[in-house]
Structure formats: C-alpha cells, structure tokens
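tl;dr need the bound structure. longer version: we got a ligand (cytidine-5'-triphosphate) that a collaborator sent over and nobodys looked at where it sits. i said id run it. heres the input, straight from their email, havent touched it
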Amino acid sequence: MQKNILIGVTGGIAAYKVVEVASRLKKSGANVRVMMTRNAAEFVSPRTFQEITGNAVSVEMFGDAANFHVAHIALADFADAILIAPATANFLAKAAYGIADDLLTTTVIASDKPLLIAPSMNTKMFDNPATQANLNILRERGAIILEPATGELACGTSGKGRLPEPVEICAAVEKFFDSGNLRGKKILVTAGGTVEAIDPVRYIGNRSSGRMGYEIARAAVAAGAEVVLISGKSELEPPLGLKFVKVEAAVEMREAVLAEFDSVDAVIMSAAVADYRVKNPAAQKIKKSADTLTLELVKNPDILRELGGLKKSQVLVGFAAETQNVLDYARKKLVEKNLDFIVANDVTAAGAGFSVATNIASIIWRGGDVENFPKMSKAELADKIIERVADLLSGDKKFLPL
Ligand code: CTP
C-alpha cells in the first residue's frame, strides 16, 4: 500500500497493540508517521514507534522551537489518511467539538484528510450517551469508526470496548484505499510449494518461495476482492485482509481448492504443486541402513486440470515455470487445463524464477495472443495479472474459444 498514513495514538492501555498496526502497515509498503498524546507516551515509548516506522514521532506541540508552528500542518499535509488508535473517550469528545489543546488534536483539526477512528475503552465509557453522541457527530462528518470488539478489558471487566486486532485495523485501512475493480468478486489464489512427506521428519519439496502468489493475493485484496489464499510452504507473512488457508501436501491443497471452487469468480494457481508424492510415507523416522534407499512415487492429482474440467464461469489462470521451450510448453498447458490465460516464465533466466523479487514473464491468452513483459517486480507483475482478471470478469475482455 503506497500511502502515507498518520497514526494518532491516544492514552489507552491498547496503545501497545498499535505498535503492531504500525509495523504491519509499514511492511505493506506504507509510509507511517506517528503522533502521540502525552498520556499515550506513558503507555508506549515514542522511541518504540520511531524504531518501527523509521520516522520521528511527534508528541509535543512546542517541543522543537525550530518548527513548532508548522508541525501540525506538516503532519496533516503528509497524511493520505489519519488513523486514531486507540481513540479514548476524551479524544472523541475533543474531536467532536473541535478542541485543539495538544499536537494530536490540533493536527486533526488542521486536516481535511480521511479520518479512521478505532475507539477503545471500558464498556460503560463506550456506552455512555456522551461518547455515543460524540461518535455520531464524527460519523456524520464522514469519519470511519471501527467498531470496538467485545471481550476482556484491561480494567478486569468484560464487554464491548476492546481495540480490534491489529490485522483487522490494517485490513480496514487497506480497504479504505482499494481501487475497487474487483469489488464484489471472490478470488482464490494458491501459492508456495507443496510438501510431500517421506516420513514424519522429511519431505520432498521445491524451491518456490510463495512470493508471486502472495503478491497476487495482495493485489486482489487491494482491488477490493474477497480473497482466499491457499498456501503451501512459504516463509512469508500472509497479506492483510484475506482468508488464509495453510496446507502441506498436494492432495490437501486439492481438497482446500475444491471446497472453495464453486463460490469463486476466478482461480489463480501460482502454487508449485509437486507432480508426485511418496507412495507409502513411513509412519516412523526412517533409520539409516542400506547404502541406497528407493522411494516409490505416485502421481499427484493435477488440481488445475481438474478445475479446467469443472469450470463453469470461473476465470482460470495458470503458471508455467519452464527451463526450455517456454512458450510451447505453456501453450500446451493452457489448452490441456482449459485456462483463460497462462503466465509463463523461464525460471533459469537472470532476474526470474524462485526466491528473487523480480520476474520476466509472458502471458499467453486463449486464442493465441502473447504479451511479453520486461523484467519487473513480482508486485508489478501481480498487479498486471489482477488487472487482466478484472477485465475478464467485467466483460472488458472477451472469453475466447480455445
Ligand atoms: N498444477 C496443479 N496441479 C499439479 C501440477 C501443477 O494445479 N499437480 C498447476 C500449477 O499450479 C500451475 C500449472 O498447473 O499453475 C502448471 O504447473 P507446472 O508444474 O508448470 O506444469 P505441470 O502440468 O505439472 O507439467 P510439467 O511439470 O510436466 O511441466
């Protein structure tokens, strides 16, 4: 998410959770700045936010004589959106009535940027008519209020007033910015490599990092889709705002994919599915004995080919990672698996393939057209793939005969 997010932290115990919010937003590509009230700085040190965001944290209105008179304006100008988390009852009251008595509230008043507010407080404070009236005033002015969750509160009671989980807050921010050309659509993405057990401690795997698929899932979320990411082995953190299903073996991935297939508008199979699995994985660790060991392998189901047979209106996108005759092999897979398009790449080319951040790919369309892309980041290629899926689903691009 290439956005400037200004986080305003007010003085609630949930301030510590906002460290993770800042961290996740930063990891998703946002430029994050944090301003805190003095009370918030009692709960979490400004230095923590500074380390996490890589940006100076502002607390005092008059702290820096050199630029105190412009700090609130500069912060307001910086932001594409302001997120207040946690928002105390005191903050809501001040913001509702335009009170500007510290840097944070002054910045909010000085800003015409979208305001997202995540209130967090004791249930009675939240339910108090004054708080509810203040929330209504802010809502009517266009602020987006993230409903607090219900659960145990720091004061020892239980009820409504908990700050939503960091991942949910970040998803709300992402959703606010999404461009929306896949809004209302459900997209299934597979990623990573499958893991085929040999015994309880060993497996057959492959070099897939999962990066391409995770970027595609991120791009689909950013385009407003409901996304299910089914992932084999990958060290990456799943993107925000999607349903994440972790699997190991190809047969498990097949089951997870089939469980979703009827309800999705498109499937993008970027997983590196093992073609074979061990016929009889050992129940106990295999002990070293003879000089050679033979594993008998049996063919795995071809998930994408099966989807090609079941396909009704779903868009189907496959990948072809090749080491030679790239376009010919890819075209053959497109036809055999009944795909709408296939993304082909030579995994041996410099700047393409596993574990690198870039890719050099071609898209081969049903009907025969070929688009050759220059070397680009996997994130950029993911955006291109998602744009094309959106075009197909919106009817801007025709479904072609084979
Ligand atoms: N695929 C799949 N199930 C498999 C193997 C592959 O769904 N058992 C999918 C991959 O996710 C990819 C496409 O099919 O989108 C092509 O995968 P690839 O491994 O390149 O091709 P294979 O059909 O396995 O052919 P080969 O290994 O002989 O190149």
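gonna send this back to them w/ a short note. Residues 250, 269, 271, 273, 275, 300, 302-304, 318-321, 333 surround cytidine-5'-triphosphate (CB under 6 Å).
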